[in-house]
Amino acid sequence: MATLGSVQSTIEILQKYQFVFQKKFGQNFLVDKNILEKIIEAAEVTEQDCVLEIGPGIGTMTQYLAERAKSVTAVEIDRNLIPILHDTLSSYDNVTIMNEDILKVDIHRIVEEQNGGKPIKVVANLPYYITTPIIMALFEKRVALQSITIMVQKEVADRLQAKPGSKDYGALSLAVQYYASPEVIVKVPASCFMPRPNVDSAVMKLTRYDAPPTAAKEESYLFAVIRASFNQRRKTLVNGLANAGNLGVSKEMIVEALEKMGMSPTVRGETLTLEQFTELSNSLLEIRQ
Ligand code: SAM
Questions:
Q1: Which of 54, 107, 198 to mutate to test the pocket of ligand 1 (most atoms within 8 A of CB)?
Q2: Quick one: pLDDT band at residue 127, thresholds 50, 70, 90?
Q3: What is the full DSSP assignment across the chain?
Q4: What is the pLDDT of residues 173-195, one digit of tens each?
Q5: I need a labelling partner for 260 at 20 to 30 A (CA). Which of 61, 64, 157, 246 fits?
Q6: Residue 22 CA, ligand 1 centroid: distance in Å
Q7: What is the atom index within ligand 1 of the atom nearest the CA of 55?
Q8: Could you identify the atom of ligand 1 that is nearest to the CA of residue 25?
Q9: Looking at residue 52, what is its pLDDT?
């Protein structure tokens, strides 16, 4: 039975080990059983699943995961938390604790060792400053995974699921929506954490597509076009792309590509769908040749 997940049990552990919170590691521990249950339910963890947990803290969510999963690998950067994790997880024989920085560790090796290279599920309550790099690294490095269930800052949740035309729509929305379908599971008020963060959060589930929803001739070029379109949000798409410098296209070529798509040369990047960005980047590649 999971024993953590309340204010009292968390304080007991923190006092027992005289733990000092490290701001640089974004340590805000979950102290709400209801939210923990919702995360586990959303991740749909079963006894067939191998789970990678990023940033286990004192092991609260790890306990809930270990109750249901076949195995859990928990990667924690703070070495002061390692003895605590060995204590709070001592009754589970399906948990591996690793004292590593998730941005530096070889995640492919973890998947290989944990699940013979077959897709795993990622569950994480991460510090907010590494949310974007870790989500992108998991997708771009093609880590074998089924889904990422992750606590993010409310504003990031809005960006991940934003649609064309909204103020939150940008390169991150498109990059994530190229790889996965995003879904907000539950909003999480700051009061569910210890210590309380300054912002509200949300749990999101990103379910990976078997294949990308659009057919880009060159993925790296598609993403270069997307980034260039949002780098200069106030400019028209034509100016933004022509100024980018790394796309190898002139204004005339971009206008030609847009005309082929039946779009005005004054269109702005923030109105284009992923399908339209793909069509545009494919067309630019052709015209460039
Ligand atoms: N999962 C715990 C919970 O829900 O109570 C802790 C969440 S806390 C927001 C984030 C955790 O990630 C901390 O334990 C922190 O030390 C750890 N962490 C921060 N940066 C990390 C990194 N680069 N690699 C692995 N763990 C990291």
A1: 54
A2: confident
A3: -----SHHHHHHHHHHTT----GGGT--EE--HHHHHHHHHHHT--TT-EEEEE--TTTHHHHHHHHHSSEEEEEES-GGGHHHHHHHTTT-SSEEEEES-TTTS-HHHHHHHHHTT--EEEEEE--GGGHHHHHHHHHHTT--EEEEEEEEEHHHHHHHT--TTSTT-SHHHHHHHHHEEEEEEEEE-GGGEESPPSS-EEEEEEEEPSS-SS--S-HHHHHHHHHHHHHTTTS-HHHHHHHHSSS---HHHHHHHHHHTT--TT--GGG--HHHHHHHHHHHHHHH-
A4: 999 999 999 999 999 999 999 99
A5: 246
A6: 10
A7: 12
A8: 19
A9: 98
Which residue's alpha carbon is at the smallest distance from atom 23 of ligand 1? 101
Q: With a 6 A CB cut-off, is 125 part of the ligand 1 pocket? A: yes
Residue with the smallest CA separation from ligand 1 atom 22 is 101
